[in-house]
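To assess whether ligand presence alters the predicted conformation, the chain was also submitted together with EPZ. Input:
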Amino acid sequence: MKTTPKNNSQGRSYIVRGGNPLNGEISVSGAKNAATKQMVACLLTSDPVTLKNIPQIGDVEATAELLEGLGVKIEKNDQDYTISAASLNTSKVSAAFSRKNRIPILLIGPLLHRFGEARIPMLGGCKIGPRPIDIHMQGLEKMGAEVTCEDGYYTIRAKELKATMIELRFPSVGATENLMLAAVLAKGTTTIANAAIEPEIMDTAKLLQAMGAIINLEANRTWVIEGVEKLNGAVHEVIPDRIEAASFGIAAALTGGSVFIRNARQNDLLSFLNAIRKVGVPFTIQSDGILFGSAESYKPVVIETDVHPGFMTDWQQPFVMLLTQANGVSIVHETIFEDRFGYTESLKQMGAHIQLHSDCLGSKECRYKHQNYMHSCIVSGPTPLKAADICIPDLRAGFSYLLAALMADGESHITGIDHIERGYEKILDKMKSLGADIEVTE
Ligand code: EPZ
């Protein structure tokens, strides 16, 4: 394959020479999808809140800028951020933050409580499907908010948010978080049924409780939140990132190495660990982390992504890479996002045998049945991979491209690396410390 770097139209790139086994130890950073939400939760009080273990990643930087634009003061001390929203100067999020990530929408609850109004630009984030926000808005409307949409902005107004019973049509992570942030200061008791209960959401509930909220997880994925008058400051440590932990675990298995992942938590990785056990990846649970190893050969499996406690959609991409090296035919059924296999095109260029299907392959039918979305795939392995020039389309696909390049024969050039740096802290340093032959071109 071609080895000349692409011209600079794509910005910085990684040059990866495949073939080295990854060996050693890394520490998992704080979870992106907890840290960024918790930074927003700090706007629910005028007191300072200290968040520890904040990862240094693009999405945290973008969230900090977003909050600072509203008048929030952030004191950064390495991984610890003290966030003070004593005085906010606007209820309007700048359009500059539209399409960067999906955090602005979570500001609705805090801004409504502070101003009675929130003006939020249309959202961005990874291009993995249409990603509507109807579940967010329907819940807020049930709480008494008026929502209008004009000129690329949502305007949401409510003098006071009222507690109510909300049943989500799907357990959306973002909508659950949004409604939680709205409910903690609403009048009365809000019930959010058929809600999401991902570990990052649980961690945010812990922060809210430390800030003075009354919030409980009840049977059947139901959050019950008794609104309080006021929240106060708190100190909270963000949980380790279970996506980063799983991704590096697969990196060890695929490169024929062995990596101890400090702070990886078995609790948050149960379904992932079951899946890799079936594939034949050896691992040992230790008190302070998990040691992931590798085997001579791997077995094919059938896997379906699902809401927590199922196999998460953000593990799907590195897992597909693992299956390219399994002995036989595997099936992956993506039931969360309708369009999350686009990234496999480049893997096919590198030699992977992956076929996309619109049927619900696997054992159950999902919302995307008969809708013509390519949301299932058949992976046949094992296939040797060859180096290529590839461009990362979204964050999690980015890690699987890195894995492909680490295993491939030859030198790969990966562009679009801002995507990967949005979500993985010091990924280059961590990879190099494990023995990866990788460098960045500016
Ligand atoms: C969060 O996205 C994460 N992002 C995603 O991780 C993760 O893949 C996803 O949850 C599922 O676990 C952040 O936390 C920032 P959803 P979110 O609302 O909240 C549909 C990463 O790489 N839906 O649970 O946007 C939606 O279209 C990112 O870190 C509606 O139909 O996910 C999707 O099909 C990528 N209407 C499904 O629900 C709505 O109003 C799940 O979305 C909301 C969602």
